[in-house]
Amino acid sequence: MMLGRLGLLGVGGVAATSLLSGCDNGNGGGSASNGGGDHQLDNSVKGATDATKAANRKIADSLPFNERGDFDDAKRGLIARPDTLTIKNDKGDVVWDLEEYKKYIGDDKAAPDTVNPSLWRNAQLCMEYGLFEVVKDKIYQVRGYDLSNITFIKGDTGWLVYDTLISPETARAALDLVNEKLGPRPIIAVLHSHSHVDHYGGVRGIIDQADVDAGKVKVIAPANFVEDAVSENVIAGNAMSRRAVYMYGALLPRNPQGGVNGGLGQTVSTGVPTLIIPTDIVTATGQKMTIDGVDMEFQFTPGTEAPTEMNTFFPQFKAMWMAENTTNTMHNLLTLRGAQVRDARIWAQFLNDTINTYGPNTEVKFQSHHWPMWGHDKIIDYWKRQRDMYKYMHDQSVRMMNNGMIGSEIAEEIQMPPELNNFWPDRGYYGTLKHNSRAVYQRYMGWYDGNPSDLDDLPPEPAGKKYVDYMGGADAIIDKAKKDFDNGEYRWVAMVLKHVVFADPNNTDAKNLLADSYEQMGYQAESGPWRSVYLQGAHELRNGVPTAGGTDTASPDTIEAMPPEMMFDYLAVRLNGQKAAGQNIKLNVTFDDLKKDYTLTVENGVLNYAPGHVPDPSASLTLSKETMNQIQLGKLKLTDGIDQKKVTLDGDRQSVDQFVGMLDTFPFWFNIVTP
């Protein structure tokens, strides 16, 4: 699976932001006991403490749970659903399984003590799966077959398919359901709304390259789609994917103490994503296409939820496809897996353009996550509150920043006004008001908060040892932390015990108590990713770092789509600067199938490249792009390629071996909660 977003907000208002972590304002969010430090330090999964129960009850009492309109919309238009939904690949491996969730999540089941009731509500809504009619006899969606939705629009002779999920297996299963219930029709076009993998990864499950090459199927995407999809998933893909394990909770058990909901959907499927190069590109708002009798007008929205993205208006149906620019949650300005900070100001401006340009003629709104909405006035109100949510986060964060506050201070103080805070689609199931406000600060001010003490601070391991020493030793810290834990001060306990664990990763009591603190914060989290982050952290403290079940952002189709220049950029990232110091190597590289020549130069500890050849290389290499793809995928070593005559070498073999020896291979399962 690819978790490069996956591209991948918040809780609004004082009640929600304080309850996310259980001890804002210094009172622990309620008292679990009278203190005393009696908490047992074993490594088992725990239930909800009294403090967590109180925090979740407060959420239940503060939000309009009697409003059921979302449930009506989520159920509306249901045509069919299979009794069971478990999807496997051709090897028999499960890539998607809704059955585990169905055992404990249901419309008629109250929120467990271990789940924020607002997040539980979102999970209930996301469990409405199957084939749905959005616009009578014209627009259909299959929901609940992956993190995202797949949409089928009926043309004169075939289907236009919008966004193809993560995995070919889930996309194929969705198409099979459509064919079974609506009758088989050819796919005329596939449209990708943006460059996140849950919107294009399943494409080869429903169309093949031969039909695209023959002109039977169009693949339509916004400008820079391929470049953005590839760059996000390769250059920093390893680190992002490791953190995505935390963000999406893909490895958590499916039960009330584990994975419940990912915010945008239940979780991510685990098939290998695919990619087909688009045949048609959208470059501007107002651009129109008619395919198989379906009229479309695109709104080009770069720099919003993704670097490249587009909405689509269907004038014949008075329907607006919002891609992922609006969903039934506050979205991320900075995804917890890592990415470039998104611009909330631009995002709000594009939503304002949506309202003014397409709003007057819109009666149906639908998108690639969650459920649709019907009714002009209701949609306009929804768009305005989504727009103002992003603008409020931006404007108020910048206001506080200009008053001298730093990111953590802004996150602690910012509150949504009631008209946004109590609006269900603005709640923080995916991101949080807290980390979005810090993202605004980061976008303008960077990582440095202006305090000289933070300019050159110690890394966690040496800092941890000094903290522990200053605090009187690990035993004294743990004794105090147990009392604070019993008082529900989980945020503080986590901050303190992090130092103990980094000072001594073999301190079992510290790791167990830290895990227990993470666990309670996870149980209180309204955001699916926050819950997953905390619970995955607790799991790794108790059980160690996993060694299997990882993700791979560099799928074969992603590598195939990489031009040589991007491959060389990735090699430059892999070059170990210390090993390369003092070296001077020049390699002429020829891709014989592409008829392209390049020179790679290692000097000053840096790898540079340029088109063309130099006259005096250390060595010259000739190979095909396919051979280079195999090397990038780890299926072939460059040195083995030379030995097998798949790579032609002319010159100094030692210089090539030396170059290869300077390249790092990144470990996926690096430590996060321990040194």
Which strand order does the major sheet show? 1-4-5-6-7-8-9-10
Show unreliable segments: 1-36
Per DSSP, the total helix count is 25
Radius of gyration (Å)? 26 Å
Please give the alpha-carbon distance between the first and last residues.
27 Å
The assigned structural class equals alpha+beta
Beta-strand fraction estimate: 5-15%
Mean pLDDT: 92
Features:
675 residues; alpha+beta; Metallo-beta-lactamase, Chain A; Nonspecific Lipid-transfer Protein, Chain A; 2 domains
Account of the 3D structure:
It is a single chain. The protein has 675 residues and is of the alpha+beta class. It folds into 2 domains: 13-46 and 56-443, Metallo-beta-lactamase domain (Metallo-beta-lactamase, Chain A), CATH 3.60.15.30; 562-661, 2-Layer Sandwich (Nonspecific Lipid-transfer Protein, Chain A), CATH 3.30.1050.10. The strands form 4 sheets. Strands 1-4-5-6-7-8-9-10 form an 8-stranded mixed sheet, covered by helices on one side. It has a 6-stranded mixed sheet with strand order 11-12-13-14-15-16, with helices on one face. It has a 5-stranded mixed sheet with strand order 19-18-17-20-21. β17 (585-591) and β18 form a beta hairpin. The longest helix is centred in the middle third of the chain and has 27 residues, at 376-402. The two termini are 27 Å apart.
